[in-house]
Amino acid sequence: MKTYLLTDIIGPTMIGPSSSHTAGAVKLGAVARALVQGDVQKVIFYLHGSFAATYRGHGTDRALVAGIMGHPPWSEDIRDALQIAQEAGIDFDFVPLDLGDVHPNTVRIVMTDSSGQVSSITGSSIGGGSIRIIGLNQDEVDFSGDYPTLIVKHTDVPGVVAGVTRRLYEKGINIAFMKVFRSSRGRGATMIFETDHTVPRELLDELREIPGISLVSFIHPLEVV
Amino acid sequence: MFPQQAGELIDICSEEKITLGEVAIRHEMEEDQLTRDEVMESLGRALDVMFDAAREGRNRRIISLSGLIGGDSTAIHAYTEKGGSIAGDVMTRAMAYAMSCSELNASMGRIVAAPTAGACGILPAVLKTFQEERGTSREDLVVALASAGAMGIIIGQNATISGAEGGCQAETGAAAAMAAGAAVQMMGGTPRMSLDAGAIVLMNMLGLVCDPVAGLVEIPCIYRNAQGAVNALTTADMVMAGVRSRIPFDEAVSAMAEVGRSMHGSLKETGIGGIAGTPTGRRLKQQIFGNTKITEVHKDHKQPRDDGN
Predict the structure, then answer these.
(1) Less CB within 10 Å around the terminal CB: N or C of chain A?
(2) Which residues in chain B land under pLDDT 70?
(3) Which ipTM was obtained for this model?
(4) Distance from CA of A67 to the nearest CA of B (A)
């Protein structure tokens, strides 16, 4: 049975015109931003399907850039995001591209940070402002961005998953959803934990010390009112 | 657990002697572990954003991002000031408020999706009309908004509030039904009368297709927001005069769901049929997007909390 809350019917408060082309796009930009350590210096948005065809009319370009700069979906700065980014010296570009068999509202975001490190994320805006992240750098992933999300890249050897879950348990962090993705046996794998609590910085540093772990990222969910 | 149908909702209202909105407020308190004040504050914040959006067209001409629409709200305010309207100033102002919200939405301004961004002008227009014409208190406006929300939950649970699933009847139709219920409540009508008003509006707007030009939430959405507000206000008067809906709200909602299901795909937010498919509609699309193929236009779905079983 479908159920709704009052706040689903009267809300969200958002910047128009479309929850999927605007609010969802801001969230996609924000998740991408959270994965970069330093400042984003350069970003290319590869737009697929409906995003590619209608991004100007729906302001999806402005929404994505606003997200990269950390503006929430209800910020009135979204409208002027391109100009604000230009003034901040962020180099951005939009490229229509067929990303294959993915949701029509999908974007691949490729970012270069101040140290020259390149990272990318692929995500879809699936309706009502909800999103799914389906790709992280070269890896397949799947998470919503609605929960605090811990992303751990590691070598695919026994014991690493247990090492991470044990430390989360010790800090009293409850795991709502957990998924492990790997490209091939014994090679790199990615763990995604969607949790009920924020993961403190000390714990992230502690996880980085575990042998076999190459990357630890953490994304705070956006508070959408 | 929120009642599945309006029939159960009305039983709770009669037993506990409370409004439709109060049932929704209590449900929200339980689900999100909030106090009544917290729920009321959150609705109050939404009301503030709604009123700001409704007023904006009085301050300036709002032009959409695409340039397809703009300035209508301001024009209607000027017309009202000049005098001579046949429908009366209350109606013309309500239209201007609704269109202001639609224009703001299309120009990347801040709005409250109620129930969707495409139908964001109707509830603000009706609530603002009561604040101005009747001096309705903030508390009463917020509870009326909650009652509208309760009706929207019933529509979402038993039909849909997505144009892509049910056409415009599910967006501006639902919003106008909700607003009519809120209006009746603010005039002292009973919960049953609110639902009667909702049922009549749904009958009036049954079959309305979702056919946005170029897939943008602009034409004909802005006109339908104005008409949705007018429909809600006139139907509220009808019900307060003693007119009953001969068809119960739940059955009108089921009819809307069924009509939505049988509606052709080209008329459900694909930007292909209806007004989008007229020669002028196609030309405007060409003008904005050129020859780029649009595989799927905007999807303004509200995702249900739980889509199990």
Answers:
(1) N
(2) 291-309
(3) 0.92
(4) 15
